[in-house]
Amino acid sequence: METKIRNMEDFAKASGISRPTISKYFNDPNAVRNTTRERIEQALETYDYRPNIFAMNQNRKLTRNIGVVVPSLADPFFAEIARNVERRCIDAGYQPTLYSAHGNRDQEVEILDSLRSLKPAGLLIAPLGRNSDKAMIEKFSQKVPTVLFDSYLPDIGLSFGGSDNFQFGRLIVDYLCRTGTPPCFFEMQNPANPNANKRRQGYIAAMEALGHAPQVVSVTGEGWNFEEIGRNGGLEVIDSDGFPSDTVLCSNDRLAIGLISACFARKIPVGFEEDSAIRIAGMDDHPFSRFTCPPLTTISQDYEAISKHAVETLFGNLEGDEITDKVVLFEGNLIMRKSA
Amino acid sequence: METKIRNMEDFAKASGISRPTISKYFNDPNAVRNTTRERIEQALETYDYRPNIFAMNQNRKLTRNIGVVVPSLADPFFAEIARNVERRCIDAGYQPTLYSAHGNRDQEVEILDSLRSLKPAGLLIAPLGRNSDKAMIEKFSQKVPTVLFDSYLPDIGLSFGGSDNFQFGRLIVDYLCRTGTPPCFFEMQNPANPNANKRRQGYIAAMEALGHAPQVVSVTGEGWNFEEIGRNGGLEVIDSDGFPSDTVLCSNDRLAIGLISACFARKIPVGFEEDSAIRIAGMDDHPFSRFTCPPLTTISQDYEAISKHAVETLFGNLEGDEITDKVVLFEGNLIMRKSA
DNA sequence: ACCAAAATTTTACGCGCGGAAACTTTTTAA
DNA sequence: TTAAAAAGTTTCCGCGCGTAAAATTTTGGT
What we know:
Two copies of one chain form a homodimer.
Chain A: H1 8-15, H2 19-27, H3 34-47, H4 53-59, E1 65-70, H5 76-91, E2 95-100, H6 105-116, E3 122-125, H7 134-143, E4 146-149, E5 159-163, H8 165-179, E6 184-188, H9 194-209, E7 216-219, H10 226-239, E8 247-250, H11 253-265, E9 279-281, E10 298-300, H12 303-318, E11 327-330, E12 333-335
Parallel strand pairs in A: 1-2, 1-3, 3-4, 4-5, 5-11, 6-7, 6-8, 8-9
Antiparallel strand pairs in A: 10-12
Helix pairs in contact in A: 5-12, 8-9, 10-11
Chain A binds a DNA duplex through helix 2 and helix 4.
């Protein structure tokens, strides 16, 4: 009992089972007979041995490492979806490692670069988008099974799963038109994320379908400080011409949070009530949008569905399944709150 | 030139340098002569070889892995500080891996458990706090050099670096008393984080020093959904007795965000201006507190100083330095905005 | 009880690198 | 110039495990 278990051989001796069988067990507990598995697991509790992960991965053709890459962890949206993805990887018996590109192209490249040496079994990545080094991601995805989520890059990876951003526009434009003035669209001039373009297109199409003239208000600003951009841009618009409509649909919740802040600074009451001067809506159902003043009307992304698709597609592929859909889009739901 | 470089031996041949010297170079580029280093680095560019990380770590007594553990990544405060810590690790030539306990004791334990097999050179951890399995963290810290940050656990790890939460109270209570009614203190009944206790104590001490009677308002709620707790708690207090003062100091910014939301729902104007009914202040300088309505007056934590202390203390110790201070506290700064 | 199939054991080799020992070459300093 | 120190080379072993092949044992169905 007091034997020092230093490696698999020691453990094999102590448990009375041959080392290759122990090895098989750790690769796949179901690969050994029930009675054997029970004996191993019993011994495991007695000696609390665990195989050396480096020695394992050195020889294995396929590790069980999964790289999870998101563009920014400072954004609670990605923090939340990353948490979801991580959980699912662990439940599937894989070992996820989380990386954030911090909105930076070079960092995204570096992450993939250092990921190479981890010999990952797969990669789940929400690319930066416009700024991504697409050639590099494509090259990587040809060596390592890769599933994209959130942000679409054409012809890269096994599959892509994300929100139907085009539909978002239809959904919320319908609602806004039904309940008040048709909205104008508030966005960044050069959005880093391709979803923003789909959202604009969705807005325009929805407006035209309802016989209204779409009106897009673009504000300048670079990077991922969306609240800041929304606030400064909002102040500028308010202080000059003002918005072309008393209803503003923001390209995403974080811009909306900034815009609400700008309206407050200019004492413009936000909301759908009589005494309000402007209605503001966003898209994403950002974790904080329930706590803005007033709470933000928005379109919720289906976190669960997106992370489920990413993980299940990847692991399905690893286990030999065929990829059925290259692109899977999930619908959003209208979240009605007081801001619009 | 078209030689396939499959391992260090191939690379040694191709570069005309012996394998042990190459090995030394990768362990510490400064351990080889300048001329040799240049030759290696030149060959490195030609062949883009990189050593097998698993084989390296299998044999090295000390890996260059650093575990970085935070209690929650959904909280932008931790996301931000984690980003800071990660960057410093990389700059120091180490390889950080980020983990979030997601506010969950079991997950924190699991993380440390799986971290064992990575043979990390060190651990940088912001513990959950009250919920942490202290015995486990202590045991871990005896095997792996560990530096705590943000949340203090007595007698664990090489050192602790965090904010002087006691001072926070003094700083903001002074300000609030100078500019209006002495504040009451708004907090969770059973805060998960020990910092909350220090903050309450700081508040009480500061109030007494100024000759005011401290008044603490505790609201119920479990977990890490502070905004939700602040909002629901705030609504309850408002709808019953109301706050004992027209100035409310919240234990942290996220509670304050929830409380501001509650005030808005009850149409209570927040701010320091004539027409406002309540002043609200927080503590943390949360990334979003600049965008609340009105922007939140708060105490900023010194992210840079905290992450710098954690990283430099750990790496200093790894390189043989003595630990000078077991506990290092950093002062906060008053951030004056419109809410108070 | 018998036999084929499945599981396990035995034996042996290799992965890519760290690191020690003994030796040779280059650099540094007097 | 010269000897000592430093750096590099050669040679070798070991880390802990994956994995293949052949021999052996166990299993399940008849």
